[in-house]
Amino acid sequence: MTYADVLKEIRAKSGMTQKEFAAYFATPVKTLIHWENRENRVPENILRLLAYKLAFDKNHKEFTKADIEFYEKLIDSASSKKEE
User: Fold this and answer.
1) Fewer beta carbons within 10 Å, N or C terminal of the chain?
2) Total tally of structural domains belonging to the chain
3) Rounded to whole angstroms, how far apart are CA atoms 25 and 52?
């Protein structure tokens, strides 16, 4: 699994479109698209921050603190593999 895959999974769990997700995190939509399409590599710390923000935001009850642990493991796994 790559960082792009983790990002897509986090966004899918949030139930947001690319446009909504980008707006929620004050990130340009093009940046999100480039990250998801592996045109640019999403920074590891950004992935962690996205998961934390969603888990602690009361408006996103679909995310739990247990999800943080799950995504942490996915991110760690992705970081141990070299991405192209």
Assistant:
1) C
2) 1
3) 12
